[in-house]
């Protein structure tokens, strides 16, 4: 036994050395070793998550080429034109033809529909009341009102101006045409809310002097007689005529409108 121990010891050592070189021992685990080995993928995963959490800027859209911009503008104009060029009802078309015969130019406007009920399906803008009488400023009205004005100023006004003023009327200044509002002191919509009325504040004579619509100090003056004749002649062609003396609201203008009433009744004061 004494002789075998050294051999066994030498053999044991040789085998142990062979085993160590063939299978190197893993390093000693440190308190942080396992966490570091497992931490590598965690760190990488964290970086990926951080990268994903950074917002990626969205590139601004490239400006449309000039040709495309022009095409878009033309398309919009075409859509607007199509809306304005929709076929008119026969009554509206006939009304416009009559205006043209009387020498009244007009500009078509888009339909008006307000939330509170103001509505003008086929509005137009006029800047004249006859071939010889201008309207200032331009007025947005419906065609029925425009035609009534054109006929009245072409057939009635010239003669009464010549008789009472010995001068021609060259212009009219209006105070109100289309306005989306109720009647003063009520909730009922005014005829102005339907472009169905015109308020005349003054007449412009051929010498450029204005004749305001107001009560005249001398009831026998030419101005007073003209205003009185105008008011009386307007009752019939227009369904409502109000002016100085009617009430305080109409002390400085003539209100003319085409409000339809039963039996074609006209209200004039």
From TrEMBL:
A Pfam family cross-referenced in the UniProt record is: Extensin-like_C
Q: Which domain of life is it from?
A: Bacteria
Provide ranges: composition bias, Pro residues: 56-66
Keywords of this entry: Signal
Which parts of the chain are coiled coil?
A: none
Q: Tell me yes or no: is Transmembrane among this UniProt entry's keywords.
A: no
Q: Where are the stretches annotated Disordered?
A: 54-94
Q: Give start-end of the signal peptide.
A: 1-29
- UniProt lists compositionally biased (Basic and acidic residues) regions at 67-79
Extensin-like C-terminal domain location: 94-269
Query: What is this protein called in UniProt?
Result: Extensin family protein
Provide the species name.
Answer: Nitratireductor indicus C115
Upper classification of the organism: Bacteria, Pseudomonadati, Pseudomonadota, Alphaproteobacteria, Hyphomicrobiales
């Amino acid at each position: 036994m004494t002789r075998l121990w050294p051999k066994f010891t030498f053999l044991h050592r040789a085998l142990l050395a062979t085993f160590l070189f063939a299978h190197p021992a893993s390093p000693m685990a440190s308190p942080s070793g396992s966490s570091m080995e497992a931490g590598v993928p965690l760190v990488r995963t964290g970086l990926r998550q951080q990268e994903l959490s950074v917002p990626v800027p969205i590139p601004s859209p490239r400006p449309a080429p000039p040709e495309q911009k022009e095409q878009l503008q033309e398309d919009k104009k075409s859509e607007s034109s199509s809306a304005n060029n929709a076929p008119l009802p026969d009554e509206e078309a006939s009304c416009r033809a009559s205006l043209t015969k009387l020498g009244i130019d007009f500009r078509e406007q888009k339909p008006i529909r307000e939330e509170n009920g103001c509505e003008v399906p086929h509005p137009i803008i006029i800047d004249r009341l006859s071939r010889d009488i201008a309207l200032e400023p331009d007025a947005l009205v419906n065609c029925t009102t425009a035609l009534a004005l054109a006929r009245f100023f072409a057939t009635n006004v010239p003669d009464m101006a010549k008789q009472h003023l010995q001068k021609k009327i060259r212009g009219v200044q209006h105070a109100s045409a289309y306005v989306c509002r109720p009647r003063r002191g009520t909730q009922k919509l005014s005829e102005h809310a339907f472009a169905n009325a015109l308020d005349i504040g003054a007449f412009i004579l051929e010498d450029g002097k204005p004749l305001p619509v107001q009560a005249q100090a001398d009831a026998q003056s030419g101005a007073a007689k003209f205003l009185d004749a105008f008011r009386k002649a307007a009752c019939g062609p227009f369904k409502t005529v109000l002016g100085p003396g009617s009430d305080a609201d109409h002390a400085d203008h003539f209100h003319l409108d085409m409000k339809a009433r039963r039996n074609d009744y006209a209200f004039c004061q």
